[in-house]
């Protein structure tokens, strides 16, 4: 189930994934720009209502944590991106990635891509 996140919600999720768990004050301190405390708390409640985070009470503070491991969230977001912008075609995604920044790929990155393609071919046959 993929629910679209706003830019700020994605930033909050990134903070939570980096820290594992965090209070609203810790999230606020790690965010770019100058969001207010009440904005961050509201966004955390929204993320909780969407099912992206849960909280535990520690004293008088809520400690928030992601509900889904980062790798699962990444797969879900990528699947949504591929379906939405590339008509479900993984080949179109790769072409878009390689077409714009090919000169910026390191030899190690190119080798990794080649290895992934070889492995995919072996598994397909």
TrEMBL record:
Belongs to the BlaI transcriptional regulatory family. It comes from the Bacteria. The keyword Metal-binding does not apply. The keyword Repressor does not apply. GO terms for biological process: negative regulation of DNA-templated transcription. InterPro entries: BlaI_family, WH-like_DNA-bd_sf, WH_DNA-bd_sf. The gene is blaI_1. GO terms for molecular function: DNA binding. The lineage of its organism: Bacteria, Pseudomonadati, Acidobacteriota, Vicinamibacteria, Vicinamibacterales. Keywords: DNA-binding, Transcription, Transcription regulation. This is Regulatory protein BlaI.
């Amino acid at each position: 189930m993929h629910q679209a996140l706003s830019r700020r919600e994605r930033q909050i999720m990134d903070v939570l994934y980096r820290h594992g768990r965090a209070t609203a004050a810790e999230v606020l301190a790690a965010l770019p720009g100058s969001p207010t405390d009440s904005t961050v708390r509201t966004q955390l409640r929204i993320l909780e209502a969407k099912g992206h985070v849960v909280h535990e009470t520690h004293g008088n503070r809520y400690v928030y944590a992601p509900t889904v491991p980062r790798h699962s969230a990444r797969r879900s977001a990528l699947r949504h991106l591929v379906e939405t912008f590339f008509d479900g075609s993984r080949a179109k995604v790769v072409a878009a990635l390689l077409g714009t920044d090919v000169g910026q790929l390191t030899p190690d990155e190119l080798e990794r891509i080649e290895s992934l393609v070889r492995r995919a071919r072996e598994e397909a046959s």
